[in-house]
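User: Look at the shape:
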Amino acid sequence: MRLLLVLAISLFLVACGERPAEEASAIPWVSYPQAMEQAKQRGLPAMLLFTQRGCRFCYYMEEVTLKDPKVLSLLREAFVPVKVEAEGHRDLLLRFRVFVFPTIWFYSSEGDLIGPVTGYRPPQEFAKILEYISSGAYKTKSFEEFMGG
């Protein structure tokens, strides 16, 4: 009987514990229509990630770059992130002229297109792109100027 009580309490404590690391560090993806509304309400730019099943570089982008602590922090704090799977979203692919995967489009909080980034980007480079967009530097400087070049 005592063993059952200990097991029950242990199970309860495990169930009430912290979320798994993967879940706790997940990007809070939202749908495209929600993103435009949230971006406006929160005053944050939106990031639209277009991916395709079976795309090796999309896999690297999601499993390496987007799981980097700095990139993850920037996305969670300074962006409204949207993930668009190519399958079933032909209308968005045509609207954004997505022909290469991954492709990432950025929108301002006012709903204006900022620009695209195509192909895989390593974490350090992508973090700089996110800083460029989130700081608003894109309004007055080229990316090269922002990087000091």
Q: What stands out?
A: The longest helix spans residues 2-15. DSSP finds eight helices and four strands in the chain. Helices lie at 2-15, 21-24, 32-42, 56-65, 69-78, 90-95, 123-134, 143-146. Residues 4 and 10 are 10 Å apart (CA to CA).
